[in-house]
DNA sequence: CACACAACCTGTCAGC
DNA sequence: TGCTGACAGGTTGTGT
């Protein structure tokens, strides 16, 4: 389920438990993820203290001492789960399990294996092809309505496709694209370059507010982040259009429609979104 | 170049 | 109870 808010929630959830701790054990159950984990994966990270966890787009960057970094992406079905103790019984589809001093076990679980982990020198990871060419963060202060409008104006593709394009803007996935377009009254099929400056301002504000709300609702589940399921990022959101085909629109009561765009389902209200 | 689409992989659910 | 097909929150490579 990971779009930006889920990834950010995972990051915040992990911070208080493993930052400042030494990685004492790495067990690989499967090296073939989206990219194969390198031969030296374990050795690079082993016995190092974790200094911090950053996020860029939907990637997590684990900063270790000695200039070493672990890059992680959760793909469609990935999750990171933290459990107390070292007597961890790996589940099906656990691919990498990290043991931390202080008795914590972190498991990377990903049934579909669209996720990815990469260990290397921080300089190399930060300069990695995967991170190059990513667009601005939605909360980047320099991303003002004017710049956002210009970004939309540069493409004739449907606006929904454009705001999901990580080279143009990062962090927005299928759910929050649908939700933000609904909130700003813009039809998902509208060519991006036909979005007016005023609408672009509304859309940017909607993207931010939708993401912020989701992060907040994730944050509220963080209290028992470890004690409950041990999972971060799997909390219930209240979606206004996503997954609600045929159900009444929250604003006008007419049926929510579902179409297919670039291979993904889009949900919208034909009356409220033009 | 800009865009659409298939592919990657497993699980789940609706329909027969 | 199977079986089949469609679909799932992402990204990338290929083709038009």
Question: Notable features of this structure?
Answer:
single chain, 274 residues, alpha+beta, 4-stranded antiparallel beta sheet, 7 helices, 10 strands, 28% helix, 22% strand, elongated, DNA-binding
Description:
This protein has about 270 residues and is of the alpha+beta class. The protein has helices spanning about 5-20, 40-45, 120-125, 145-155, 160-165, 175-185, 195-220; strands spanning about 25-30, 50-55, 60-65, 70-75, 80-85, 95-100, 105-110, 115-120, 255-260, 265-270. A 4-stranded antiparallel sheet has the order 1-6-7-5, covered by helices on one side. The protein has a 4-stranded antiparallel sheet with strand order 2-3-4-8. Strands 9-10 form a two-stranded antiparallel ribbon. α4 (about 145-155) packs across α7. The protein is elongated, with a radius of gyration of 20 Å. The model is unreliable at about 220-235 (pLDDT under 50). It binds a DNA duplex (16 and 16 nucleotides) through α6.
Distance between the termini: 28 Å
Strand content: 15-25%
- Low-pLDDT residue intervals, each spanning 5 or more residues: 221-234
Total helix count? 7
Major sheet: 4 strands, antiparallel
What order do the strands of the largest sheet run in, or round the barrel if closed?
Answer: 1-6-7-5
Short description:
The protein has 274 residues and is an alpha+beta fold. Helices cover 28% and strands 22% of the residues. A hairpin with a 2-residue loop joins β9 and β10.
